[in-house]
Hints:
Elements lengths: L1 E4 L5 E8 L5 E8 L4 H35 L2 H12 L5 H17 L11 H14 L4 H20 L20 H5 L8 H14 L1 H13 L3 H5 L6 E2 L2 E4 L2 E3 L4 E3 L8 E4 L2 H9 L26 H8 L11 H13 L4 H8 L4 H24 L6
Helix pairs in contact: 2-3, 2-5, 3-5, 4-5, 7-8, 8-12, 12-14
Keywords: DNA integration, DNA recombination, DNA-binding
Organism: Lactococcus taiwanensis
GO biological process, one term: DNA integration
Amino acid sequence: MWIEDLPNGKYKYCERYTDTKGMLRKVSVTLDKNSSRAQNEASRLLYNKIDAKIEKEKKKINDEQTKLASITFWEVQDEYFSIYEETVKAKTASLRETAKKKIRSLISEKTLLSDVDSVFILEILEKLYYQENYSYSYVKTIKASFNMVLDYAISKKYITVNPISNVRIKKKTQTLEQREKKKEKYLERSELKQVIKDMAVIDKSTSLLIEFMSLTGLRFGECVAIQKKNIENNILHVNGTWDSVSNSKTTTKNIYSDRKITLPKRCVQIIEEYPLKYPNDKISNDNYIFIYKNHKPYSLSVVNSRLKKINSSKNLSTHIFRHTHIALLTELGIPLKSIMERVGHNNPQTTLSIYSHVTEEMSKNIIEKLNEIDLLN
């Protein structure tokens, strides 16, 4: 204990102590006198003060430990998503909400956060993938949803280690049938021509839309979010995507998706002949090109429902035209990096899945042509 003289003639009695976290702290009391009796009284008051602070700290630690011991995974999940949904686009939040509901169908509301360890998660993912035959990509989505919540739990000091780091799901060996299904990811030129022709019978506007996507490689949301001001001569600035949940144009999927591409002549023609539904007095640079009845961009569900009416051996959806564009560029001998830049890919995995298959087919064609060469006659 030490004593400090104060300007007002009083005395401050001070003492240091180590708190429950090992930190050095200071307490003090002020008395009128500096006598032996006053020092004894100050010592008593100081140690009572220290005892009270340590007891308060211990109670706080016990309360926190009790809370941590009783907190459920659902509670942490709710806490995380209340913040997460404010930081992403409405559509992204909607997709994560779907994954959240799936996890809740597999985990009891009373499941403690402390019980969600690597074995617990692994058993859930293995059941989904190996027993219930969910796709590998879907299982990865569920795993990612677990990971986000558990990372948040670490930041809040609910846990110290994320158990997901020890979880590994081995991908199943592909069957011949599954390999053959890669062909269904895109349309051959003859198939594309037929689909466009068949769609023209069903709906001319949709036919022009899917033809435009096939020649640009745009995602559906990027395509219907095109405004007049995004096009200058034959250069298209892809600067946004249509969010069907918020019913508005938002930023592109990522920074790589914000790009400028050159439009082929046919795309310029499509824009010029696309059947506008705006009254003349409403046409402006802010207008969208590919609009539906309500002057809003085409709905994904509307286009996909029309594609289902076409008789095709392929599973037709709007995304197949993006993959078809990659296939067309590959056939033209365009380098992989240039294709990725045009379609806005930063991860080559998706591009390669199409690129590799097409180049494999091209190699077969080379052999077929070489076999036709007769050098003896």
